[in-house]
Amino acid sequence: MLERGDQLVRSAAKIGSCVPAFTIYNLETMQAALEASRLAGRDVILAFGAGYLENADFDVIARMADSLVRKHPYRVALHLDHCRSLKLLKEAARVGFTSLMYDGSGDDFALNVQETREARIIADQYNCSLEGELGGLNNEDGTGDAPTIALYTDPVLAHRYVQETNVDILAVSVGNAHGEYKGAPHISLDRLRELRDRTSIPLALHGSSGIPSATLTEAVACGIRKINVNTEVALAATAHARHMLAEKDKLRMEALCKGIRAEMARIMGTYFI
Question: Are 72 and 35 in contact (CB under 8 A)?
Fold first, then answer.
């Protein structure tokens, strides 16, 4: 049975850990995330971005997830990631998503609060957890400039935002970015500690692909309870596909999918901090 995302991250918080949220958009990505969870012996979040509706619709994703988790030995949440539409948010909740993210980070503070409060009403209506975002990140697909210090999440505003929206999880900007890092990522642990102390709720770190495991471990110690991973897994999958196709002529699709799935699970397994 799918569970709320906040239940998973709060359980992780009790043991000083975090829950990885892996981007999924088809059967193979979902199977890989669950296999990584099984091998690690840990809970996992399946994160379907609103931008992936061209790959599959909400109902298909929810039905596949519901079927796959029935025999899964660890807890799983189905999360709608980076949604900027209240209409889509409600559609996902209605068909079985258990965790929602309303991303109003591109709006001014007042509008972000207003829209996130409306998202809170939807989340409560369908018994879903709600994640909000404050601070600037680049586009979800990795395009655009990485955030500068000026766009980092302001701890004072974060306190107000959490109080006024009642979100369960807060996604923050502290040097993290979507896509591939052009250099070594510099995560502001001091900013994280202040955000943790001022908000007192679980924090989410988007753009965790490519951040060294030692840095992620430090971030978890500073309050990160959910790490979002996409780019490294996606690039590893395509690289492995090229390798398999180059090794064997007339490779069948089912064999290719099986190999890619195993490679994605391997990469995902390294993110259980």
Answer: no
Do residues 21 and 227 touch, judged by C-beta distance below 8 A? yes
**Token pair listed for 220:** 């978890």
Residues with a catalytic annotation lie at 81
Paired sense of beta strands 99-102 and 44-49, if any: unpaired
Q: How far is CA 63 from CA 26, 30, 59, 109, in A?
A: 12, 12, 6, 36
Pick the closest to residue 99 from 114, 80, 76 (CA basis). Answer: 80
From first to last of its 273 residues, the chain has per-residue pLDDT tens of 999 999 999 999 999 999 999 999 999 999 999 999 999 999 999 999 999 999 999 999 999 999 999 999 999 999 999 999 999 999 999 999 999 999 999 899 999 999 999 999 999 999 999 999 998 664 444 444 454 555 789 999 999 999 999 999 999 999 877 556 666 678 899 999 999 999 999 999 998 988 999 999 999 999 999 999 999 999 999 999 999 999 988 899 999 999 999 999 999 999 999
Asked whether the beta carbons of 96 and 22 are under 8 A apart, the reply is no
CB burial of residue 247 (10 Å; 0-12, 13-18, 19+) = exposed
Angstrom CA distances, 251 to 241, 247, 257, stand at 10, 9, 10
Closest alpha carbon to 191 in 172, 178, 204: 172
CA-angle at 225, arms to 228 and 269, nearest 5°: 50
Return the closest-CA partner of residue 263 out of 231, 239, 246, 227: 239
What is the rounded CA–CA span in Å between residue 161 and residue 138?
21
